[in-house]
């Protein structure tokens, strides 16, 4: 495909690129000899998890790896000419002209104090002799090209005044201002809603068709599958596997690739394991009978075939917020749902759909303006504060940002002890009043979520994202609740870690007969975990029903749009 | 913002990566600050240990001697040894600084807690009140206080405490509000903890820990302010061996005996710098513990 | 959800701000009025030269009548407010002249000093912040050390050191503030250096935050030079928090002016205020306090405006 378009010279060619940082950089490099090339009109995707060296790769190609970085390569050429050992001044002449960069969230990747038009015109100002008027005309042309038709007014706006999709388009316009043969897109759609993500990917694909070589950097195999011609999987600083996209996605060779593919939840049936067993530290000792008794002995009529009692019910919830300007906004507008015992209700929606407010209402952290929440058949949101406190042990919560949900002063042990014990009074720090029964419960909880005792003394801050989320789940289980409310519990995790946490939740649900209210923006995750599903938009549930039915035959046009936009591997 | 907020870095915006920032390890500055503080505390508690002479002992024959091995910091117009006087003045200067800071922190704590805990109406009222107090910027509140109660060490101390209180109050209020609305307080609510339990277990410890840092930083600033008042003749008066008062006395002889002003001032500066360095060190440790 | 027009909203915002400022001013006047009443002793005696002086009961009565001291407190308070509203700050006990013209005459010198010092402090702080973020551990440590020391320098000591150095030893500059530029150098430096220490700490933090942000990476990736990155993208971000500190800086400069004007024997509001406190000339102190409060309030309003100009994000809200 590359031969048709080009002059023959690849947009970028890299052989044996090694990058290390600091004094120890040579011994333990971040990038350890990677090689690849991108031809004009071709898209190579480099996929890897956090810490694999993806972003360093992008920055090295721009000569921006950092002052203390040591970069060496057998070959490193942009648009056919060697860029090794370029001085900073020479690099500057190439950046923007031979290669453009698009970063993640444009809200912070465009200067918030400058109009986007100026940002886009920067490349023209730096690399061409065009006058102000000519630059302006070119900026309007570029905005039109990236699909911002109302360019004349958009150029004067700043990043904060544009929507997420518009911003990302403007950022792309700035990167392609000089038609560089290579465009590096570093997680260009990660912060975007799924429908907007699809549009941005389509824009990148059209640039590719027009002859630009694209180096797409992402953590998400499913996303890159949409436009990549070839895929390289980066793992711990090495490219472990590289090949045509279709082959990589359907017949992967390397275990890392397979693990990443297996971890993608979309289109995977409920209950299917996503993580490789060896990778997930499934607790070896199933010997703590009080907690992890096998599924059948779970309290109450557990199991998926038992009669379904409603454990959590929302009736006509309404919540208004007053915006700074004084205008009122309906965050949640007449939301009703029922969560049946032992099942999972997934709530899915894009940003601003009101799903997080719904979670807070279900947890009785905010009072609804109308409607009510009933917990285990009793009034919950309408109950007195004291009555609510008595009901709370029936309900556990897992949050997106686990770290901020832990008191920064407390260790893992203290966090879990607080959850197990009655609260402040009893668990004085290192006091003698701490009971051994509490300690045993803490150990059982750790075991249940697959964490080792060695972590007890650590602060949550020093744990990995997956470990934090496990601690958070352990805390939620401390009161032996029947219901877990999970608000975006896996959104900030790598896809294989996400798979482990989803598997853990599934396992816990089966073992304990838990009912889950699972809130996410990610349709793939929702499809994998849910029995029932509700699709939210603008504070309302636009479609609800059996997950299998909704995903197979969506009725509402919005659901159809959403499903159409979901990146998936199958063809 | 107040001096303290700046020093404590409370105006900083959150940021994700600080890769370009040099890593902060145990600093030489902190070690030096610690040593100087140990010297100060010793001098304050047992002045005779670091300077055996008599701070008020007059020796007209050796007046106006420049620094020498016999008189490290020189002598003043009455032949008193400046080093001895500076060392013996440490006690009163530190005491003034500490008491003033405690007064400021105490008042700030009361106002800040009222605003942060008792709901929007009290918060609004206290905030307006603080706004009014902020309209007496810097030394102004202290000067007004001295106008009413007359000059002297005690009034100057209270005046400095009073003048710093609005700044403390605002910091404490902000800290309380941010802790109260934090995700971990919400998580404790979800666990079924009562407001009282949450207050004791989470809100108070997380609000009060930064006060320690503020206090350390504040003592340095309070000493500077109090000695400024002494220098202006509104606090401690000569011949008392208080740093500000000594500086004031040296003012007349600037042209001929610079050491009379230099060394007391140097101690004020070193004390304030040490307090800042130590306060920052404690803050870093709290944050990364 | 009626959408209010932007012009109306801005107008309403300005009106609310003005109302808030007037409220603060009124409370300042009230607080001062009642605080003054805490002064022990008979104000009439103070007017006639303090408790020590021999005063006849007739003279005291005459003074009480003249100053309205025989009226009920509330009447006195309202009368005071009425006088203040017309710009009448009363009459000095010690100088035997009207306070308002006296203080306004002193205002110019102090303002000149403060404005110059603020400008110099900004330049120093910005220079230091830019230099110390150039890279390298050494520059960083030196910069941060200089800022901490500068911020800890008491005005009175710095002034003394500068006088000894530049006037006594080098003989370049006058130790007493003479009219003209030479006489301004030392007082302005004295005020500017400690302020620069504080501002520098803030500016360096925000400058670094800006330099590490993705939008600067984007700019570099477009081929922007180091200088361009700093001047086009970072300086404004560094200046924002420092602008928001202007109200505080004003207060710190006025406090400093009290000391600096005294040391350099420079006529001005600060020195007048200090003298008045020393001789307990209540009307002059009250007048000075009110003038400074007005200045502070104006400064916060100006700060608000400057922030809106520098940060467009605030305008759209």
From TrEMBL, chain A:
Residues 278-290 have a biased composition (Low complexity). GO terms for molecular function: ATP binding; ATP hydrolysis activity. The keyword Ubl conjugation does not apply. One of its GO terms (biological process) is transmembrane transport. The keyword Nucleotidyltransferase does not apply. Residues 12-261, 312-563 form the ABC transporter domain. CDD domains: ABC_NikE_OppD_transporters. Pfam families: ABC_tran, oligo_HPY. Residues 278-307 are annotated as: Disordered. InterPro entries: AAA+_ATPase, ABC_transp_ATP-bind, ABC_transporter-like_ATP-bd, ABC_transporter-like_CS, Oligopep_ABC_C, P-loop_NTPase. Keywords: ATP-binding, Nucleotide-binding, Transport. It comes from the Bacteria. SMART domains: AAA. Belongs to the ABC transporter superfamily. NCBIfam families: PRK11308.1. This is ABC transporter ATP-binding protein. It comes from Cryobacterium cheniae. The lineage of its organism: Bacteria, Bacillati, Actinomycetota, Actinomycetes, Micrococcales.
TrEMBL record, chain B:
Residues 90-279 form the ABC transmembrane type-1 domain. InterPro entries: BP-dependent_transpt_permease, MetI-like, MetI-like_sf. SUPFAM superfamilies: MetI-like (SSF161098). It comes from the Bacteria. GO terms for cellular component: plasma membrane. Belongs to the binding-protein-dependent transport system permease family. This is ABC transporter permease. It is a multi-pass membrane protein. It is found in: Cell membrane. Residues 1-22 are annotated as: Disordered. Keywords: Cell membrane, Membrane, Transmembrane, Transmembrane helix, Transport. GO terms for biological process: transmembrane transport. Its main location: membrane. The chain crosses the membrane at residues 28-50, 94-117, 129-148, 154-172, 211-237, 257-278.
